[in-house]
Design goal:
Length: 203
């Protein structure tokens, strides 16, 4: 992180993340859910949050439509705006992480370079990118928000998977993949829980 001229950051005097994590009896971590609109990011983030709350974990979900209604309401869906969207979200995510919180993000994050930027800002050891995979056809069939029908009729500019590209992870990327096309929500949730818990339990 570069510090602008005449700015003197205060991080060193603050109670550190270790102390926060000890207080919360958990380890903070960021699970960066990404994938097409309708793939299941928000559904799984919410289901996980509720399951973990039952076990006493403190979590926070950051979700695309919510953030785009507030902090990022000045941004659209051009490549440059998506880049700025992800940059700001990653910075906010890091603040929650510093407080020892388990964060689930739910953003399309369509390009590998955007995911790399998020990892860089958050810190590679503290973030797990989770590809919520579902085909364009599956998502269009679900059409949770009516956006696929609207896009097909030409009513949505830069729609991901149609006129704005989505890059799947490639071999060697550290990302988890959860494929929701033919899996129940419960199956996906259980698969995730098994992998999430070891990363956030305070050993
Ligand atoms: N053009 C276009 N393409 C894709 N999605 C669109 C678009 N316009 C609006 N929406 C709605 O915005 C949500 C995606 O915002 P994100 O911040 O996650 O996008 S990105 O990460 O910056 O690419 C997305 O939410 P999810 O369905 O939860 O993915 C949509 O509800
Ligand atoms: N295995 C699964 N995991 C998550 N969602 C699923 C699954 N199978 C079907 N769905 C359905 O897919 C839709 C996903 O919508 P949503 O979670 O809003 O997607 P996103 O946040 O990626 O835009 C929901 O209607 C959900 O019920």
């Amino acid at each position: 992180m570069s510090t602008p001229e005449n700015i003197h950051t205060e991080f060193h005097r603050m109670l550190g993340r270790d102390a926060k994590e000890a207080q919360l009896k958990q380890r903070g971590h960021v699970f960066w859910f990404y994938g097409l609109s309708g793939s299941g990011k928000s559904t799984l983030a919410n289901a996980l949050e509720r399951k973990l709350a039952e076990q006493g974990f403190i979590t926070k979900i950051l979700d695309g439509d919510n953030i785009r209604s507030g902090l990022n309401s000045d941004l659209g869906f051009s490549d440059a705006d998506r880049q700025e969207n992800i940059r700001r979200i990653a910075e906010v995510t890091r603040l929650f992480l510093d407080a020892g919180i388990v964060v689930f993000t739910s953003f399309i994050t369509p390009k590998r370079e955007l995911r790399a930027a998020a990892r860089e800002i958050v810190g590679v050891d503290d973030i797990t990118p989770v590809y919520v995979e579902a085909s364009f056809e599956t998502c269009a069939e679900r059409d949770v928000k009516g956006l696929y029908a609207k896009a097909a009729a030409g009513g949505v500019k830069n729609f991901t998977g149609k006129d704005s590209s989505f890059e799947a992870p490639v071999a060697g990327d550290p990302d988890w993949t959860i494929t929701t096309d033919n899996q129940t929500e419960e199956e996906s949730l259980n698969q995730l829980l098994e992998k999430v818990l070891p990363l956030i339990k305070n050993s």
